[in-house]
Write a structure and sequence with these properties.
globular; mainly alpha; CGCAxxGCC_motif; about 0% strand; C_GCAxxG_C_C family protein
Amino acid sequence: MASTRQDQAVELFKSGYNCAQAVAGAFAPDVEIDRDTALRTAAAFGGGIGGTGKTCGALSGLLIVLGCKYGRREPADMQSKAEMVNISQQAIKIFIEQTGARDCRDLLGFDLAAKEGKAAASKDNAFDVCPDLVRTAAEIAEKLLQDDQHE
């Protein structure tokens, strides 16, 4: 297996998992869930949430990882809820700053919700950027997981 979480995420993506699964699966050991659970949990988030071209699956995978690590475990724990909102917003902001957008249709330039859009994206090799998006999300996850202010 690859040496870094970023490499692991890209390898998972290239092996056939969707972008959300790749990020969540690579970080499963770091957030105390088993890889199978991470892969199944993230399965519906690829292609911009269920193939709709909305929020990039790599970003969704990143948010799943952060939720597993920092999400509140008790309904009355409002501090954890506020911290989760804060770290999620940080992750989204960093992702947009580094990639230029958060939705697949903007990142790829095609409407993936339309059959014609998905076919045109494939024909134009628009999905070639996806491994880079997976790597970016994994880099952000690693940074935020190591940030002591959230522990």
